[in-house]
Predict the structure of EF-hand domain-containing protein.
Amino acid sequence: MEVFLVLLAFKLVYPHHVHLSRGNHESRYLNQMYGFDAEVVRKYSFQMIHLISDTFQSLPLAHVVGGRVLVLHGGLFSREDVLLEDIRRIDRRCEPPDQGIMCELLWSDPQPQNGRSPNPRGVALCFGPDVTERFLSRNGLDLLVRSHQVKSQGYEVEVGGKCITVFSASNYGGSCYNAGAILQWENGEVDAHEFIAPDLEKLQAAYAKGPEEVKQLVRRYSSRGDLWEEEVGCAAEPSHVARLDGEIARMIKERILRNKSQLGTQLRGADEGGTGTLSEAAWARVMASVLKLDIDFSKVRAFLTDLNDAGDIDYESFLNRYQVRLREQYAGWQHNVLQMFYNSLLAADLEITELLSFLDSDGDGSVSLHECIDALNSLKLGLSYGQIKQLVTTLGFDPKPADGKSPPPSPAKSKSPSKKHGKDGKPEEQNIPVERYLQRLTLVADTVRPKSEQEKHDLETVAKWIRTMCTSSGKGIADIFKEWDADSDGFIDYEEFIQCCIQFQDGLEEEADYTYTEEDFEEIAKVIDTAKAGRINYLAFLGLFQVLSEEGDGKARAHMANQAVIEHICSTIWANEVLLSKAFRLFDPQQTGLLAPADFHSALASLNEVLSRDDEAPITSKQIDELVNALPLDAKGKVNYKEFMNAFEVVDLAVEV
């Protein structure tokens, strides 16, 4: 931001000597994607974003210097007949389109071979020296000067000598990767000057000592050689990126968060063996494909994720590492949103056959990712489709039971999670036994909540009895449930529960310290019956076993799943900051930064409506209600929406203190 303001100041002071042109990043979309908008809001205001965007759209797309040199950002065109007059006629006061002259002028790159070819960036094209020669000849020009690509020496004369790439940002990304350069054109001759800009701390120290010290510092940084290496701290010809500076790292992390859903889909799709891990090379390919950043991710992997003992990447841990959170004073709604979902799930009160067939639509004893997502979504439980997908995916389809201890399923259900392969050899969806997945769901839902240590002890006792039955008989929990369901109505009523518990207690070989009465067992049944239906459904029955799973993988996975839902909501709002800010300002014409709760609700609902035009709404209306009801209000009952927008934080769990 400050760099742009300095350039504008020079333009005001020297209007006939300083000329600014537009590049591909002078775009509202890229400003939002790469964090520039967030920086401006953090330092200044929302109004400043619009002023800057308007200024960007007013910048010329190209300059002709001395009638002989064309200066632009990207490159040349897919059409052979483009003239300078065609460029002058472009209506530049708009967002860059995805194709056409304006797009190509901002995005195209040169290539050493003749002709034209697709650009690896996925936009515009690559053009050869013959294309450059013909364009210059047709328009009476001698030279094309462009940027758009980092060059190790700060500049590069492209094949044919008619195109020069110049890149003035030295030490790009704080990586000691490149020199910067400027071009001096005089009397038809071009001369390049390389430099590396000293960091601000060195400049500040030099200014404190006086102008002569500043001159010496700049001189030392403007000469490549041994002294340069000594001063700058890197070799005169650095080989590759050695580190990421804070701003570049933050940009990549924000890009990961904005594309987290697609990243997850692509990473899981690349895991053909269903191991939960990928090689570094495979991970890097997915990152480059999804994030569309011109970065070799294998060289910056160490700054983004760790390798396991086998040298691979646990991609679920990688995805979970980066999150968007709301500061604590705005987080009161989160628990209510989750409880609304889980209470609705339990209130559905499905009998066992209905529940199992509901999830396992093909009756093979296992559930796939999409079976589970579609089933839960059809119940209308208060989460959007995207949130349910996050929840179900985070719960995972790996071999380990949710509580780390659950008994093996019955032989008929004994299907270990695996990725099947279709006729084309490509992996199909991974499946998991229905019983195991339901156990995970009850862990997340926290269905059984003992109110005292004694109540917890009683629940643990019954859970251990049932587990003993499973172990001794080789049966699954579903089989035990059906045996206890004497009238086969799909539920265990209180009397059935009491009689089965008494029967097991009477058959114990060792006398227990305490003998439970029928009244005791009835009270235990009431605790398990979270739906308060006077009977125990299968989901509640499975929830009994969560009292044995207070630590370990099960609870950790449950916490991750809950966080995934909340983060989906937070990320949706954060990633659409610009759209939401516009909506807020429509309800706040005086730009006070304050809104009545009803107007805040309407603004958030309007964002939801815009985002749902091509898909299901990412946030449900009930979730908006919960969020607005939990917002802190000022003395006049207003919501400070600017504080709300600034309360979102990008969190890297690996460095969180």
Q: What stands out?
A: Confidence is low (pLDDT under 50) at residues 232-245, 398-427.
